[in-house]
Amino acid sequence: MDKPEILPRLDQIDPAFTGDMDKAEAQDCLTDFRSRLLHLHELLYADRRYAVLVILQGMDTSGKDGTLRHVLSGLNPVGTRVFSFKTPNDEERAHDYLWRVHRNVPPRGSIGVFNRSHYEDVVITYVHGQIDEAERNQRLEQIRNFESYLVQNRIVLLKFFLHISREEQGERLAARIRNPEKMWKLSASDLSERPHWDKYQLAYNEALQATHTADAPWIIVPADRKWYRNCVIARQLALALESLDLRWPDAPVP
Amino acid sequence: MDKPEILPRLDQIDPAFTGDMDKAEAQDCLTDFRSRLLHLHELLYADRRYAVLVILQGMDTSGKDGTLRHVLSGLNPVGTRVFSFKTPNDEERAHDYLWRVHRNVPPRGSIGVFNRSHYEDVVITYVHGQIDEAERNQRLEQIRNFESYLVQNRIVLLKFFLHISREEQGERLAARIRNPEKMWKLSASDLSERPHWDKYQLAYNEALQATHTADAPWIIVPADRKWYRNCVIARQLALALESLDLRWPDAPVP
């Protein structure tokens, strides 16, 4: 396997980074790449050789739902599947932890989006001491093998880590508390997890480094500015699809 | 990973082997181990820490259905799941080949039986030239990783290869043709695949050798004598369960 480009540590990336882009430019970027995406999605569906699996991972309030709404909600629901990973239920807990993940891997011809993913099983569990370091490391290796298997089977992985600052999270949580239209998004765990911020950053950084492979590299998205985040994700997704040499299949009847 | 014991080549094992056992002894063996199995299955179900996955693989007429009927049909259906792998349907074909396999991996506390399995995806496909040697070898590696992951997640694998001779297959096919009560079992592929016997033996031997690991070793069962086959499988299954240190859990309410 090729070595991927080196992934910076999380603390080396400014969550408020926007390059030299301003908000208006970012909105043009989103509009542009979203329309390319609509076309590419149709082509992916017709071609049927590849599936695309988008993984959205990040701290609470980092913008996973917002990304879905702004970047992906324009896609044709035929050929699009979103799966949100919650705390495992009884049936899921009786199975190996990748069971529910593999079940929801999209079929070829479609785009699947994981809102949270198997990375919760190596980060949350580890931060809370439900698994020790040896088991965490074993899981990281299992995940590398699993993802490599998927890519070898023509499931293209796009793993986005939405990187926000602790301050930005504070403001977003405060907005949820203040604003009646956002209050429903607030969960008890948003507040109880916040004191573990540093442990989460460390555990995420280790998980990202260990699973950043040539086949399935991580893309760390500075996400304090939602407009910049949306532009980056729409662009990466469109470019990944463009790189697939998708083509309209021949007519089924000659 | 420990090295497993060396697996003999298929052509080194006599399919009619029965050791020094006669039919009456084999039936006692089956009765004995089946009753131990009933008890162990209940314990497995109560304990909930392990799942057992039995894989039955072999040439057509090698006795997969007969094994299910004679060895496993006494088990409590609660906590037992049989999955028979057929030619993949449209939905399954749109997914990676282990998708339908992983979906059907049993939850902890239960015994799952695969009548055929992912080994069809490295044997049939290879014999018929649908995948080349490079892809076959890549799949064998993927299967090793997948099985190793399952075992690490407390899913005990018991992989049985039911080994019959070409002559015995000929007789069993003839019986299906002659006997109105067996005719329904005959499929067109039973006859069209028979000329490929040698290619299948070779492809099976390579697949078995490549996936015989310490975690998930193969058990080659001489299967020309059904009574011997049943005794071996019942015994291996009971011994595997006995080695698991299963225990009755504490009362949920103190």
From TrEMBL, chains A, B:
Transmembrane segments: none annotated. GO terms for molecular function: kinase activity. Residues 21-243 form the Polyphosphate kinase-2-related domain. InterPro entries: P-loop_NTPase (IPR027417), Polyphosphate_phosphotransfera (IPR016898), PPK2-rel_1 (IPR022300), PPK2-related (IPR022488). Pfam families: PPK2. SUPFAM superfamilies: P-loop containing nucleoside triphosphate hydrolases. Keywords: Kinase, Transferase. Belongs to the polyphosphate kinase 2 (PPK2) family. Class I subfamily. NCBIfam families: PPK2_rel_1. This is PPK2 family polyphosphate kinase.
